[in-house]
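Tutorial sheet, problem 5. The two components below are modelled jointly, 608 residues in total.
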Amino acid sequence: MAQIYDRVALIGLGLIAGSMALAMRRSGLAGEITGYARSAETRKVAAEIGLVDRVCDSAAEAVKGADLVVLCVPVGAMGNVAAEIGPYLQTGATVSDVGSVKRAVIDAVGPHIPDGVHFIPAHPLAGTEKSGPTSGFAELFDGRWCLIVPVEGADVAAIQRLRDLWVGMGAQVDEMEADHHDLVLAVTSHAPHLIAYTMVGVADDLSRVTDTEVVNYSAAGFRDFTRIAASDPTMWRDVFLNNKDATLEILGRFTEELFALQRAIRTGDGDHLFDYFTRTRAIRRGIIEAGQDTDVADFGRVKK
Amino acid sequence: MAQIYDRVALIGLGLIAGSMALAMRRSGLAGEITGYARSAETRKVAAEIGLVDRVCDSAAEAVKGADLVVLCVPVGAMGNVAAEIGPYLQTGATVSDVGSVKRAVIDAVGPHIPDGVHFIPAHPLAGTEKSGPTSGFAELFDGRWCLIVPVEGADVAAIQRLRDLWVGMGAQVDEMEADHHDLVLAVTSHAPHLIAYTMVGVADDLSRVTDTEVVNYSAAGFRDFTRIAASDPTMWRDVFLNNKDATLEILGRFTEELFALQRAIRTGDGDHLFDYFTRTRAIRRGIIEAGQDTDVADFGRVKK
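Model answer (structure tokens):
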């Protein structure tokens, strides 16, 4: 594939940035990839494993001469990083991000983007429960979706170039408005994460069931929740604080529905339960048909 | 491995029974395996694929001459099946089951077990989201736990023989009292399933987010929930109706905790969220160290 950007700067060197670096390299999409992380330890590891072409000692240094800068830090840190790099951005460059929340990022980052620099927020819907500079892999985005959330008046050519990059990294691309993005993600990601964290915390807290029992007998379903609840705490704290309204709205709907099912259990309304449980199977089928999950039993983790 | 039972009758021919048949055959644990399922279609498929040695046209016929009978039907059907086979059970035989709830099964099945027949309830903590006669595989129980829940005065030698069978099928075995079993499973399985079903139902119901959006963008976490919510609706209806008290107790604790986290989001209490999300990582580590889940990112379903 042809090179799309001459120099890409990745700010933050965790799972997403690392996977981007490896995916860009896989297809030769970037001339040079620079990187910066706030933690000296992360920079050291990234340099040792050659995650990017050049690890820099400051965000300002990393973005100098870059025609694409991607902010890959927790949502709550985006504003500060943007303020720091703003003065060093090259005219004509594009600034993007990979944050799980878009409205708050636009509000925090937008004001720091100088005239002549394109700001095109994005969000790849891919990840694992792992984090840190060694957690990335080139195939993370293959077949997954990346949502581009252009701000008003964004440059069409610059958007297309960023789309090409994501397609080159294996993703499918769609565009979406910021508030709608935040609502959709509250459903497909933010509420499920909070629910999983909650259930795992409850299990850990119960005095009448030991931790050993929870751990040994987790294969009956619970272990699926613990994978999600092992995700990066800083990232997720920031997601919830920055997508407050949509998350609380979905959680409100969730609680309402949960109460209805609890009442069905209490009153012995088996038909209500059966109908509900039958309907949810269809969504799973849709996800498999759309290529967004494996149809192999138990995600294929069962040794056969 | 040596043969443990001369003739094993499996009543119900779904995921668990099928996996038991294949696991017993793998190690030569049973002389003959008979099977019966209420659905003629299931019996036909089971016979075609040779799931058991002999598919019978009635439960009574299947249990004749068996020294082990295992009830592998939904929890709500156990009582009727026990009433049906009671008169045909051979003296000295053992009747067991694989139900996800134990107190209700003991109450429903116990009265139908004649004198001279051992009744030893059990519950293998293993499964997938698949169901039906073709869903079983010999490795399902490898490394998983099977809980034996002996009733008062149960024969020690008969218990040991059933333990040997489960160990022979690859499982680790522990014994537990019925009510405690039902509480532990409410935490590790029943509440998580209801929560997953609820979240998937909510996503399906939202008018402001399309089903296509839910399906395409599910890789951000939601798809883990849909696997659980694709489980057999009849089985799960019966679980909730028959483990009402423990499930409602755990759901009550869950809701309480969820409200506390929602309040933290609303008030912007990032420390509360961060601490909670950090604590839940430890449980995941425990599960991986106990060999109950894979440490590979995303359950290993990511193509690398």
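Marking note: The longest helix of chain A spans residues 178-205. Full credit if you identified this.
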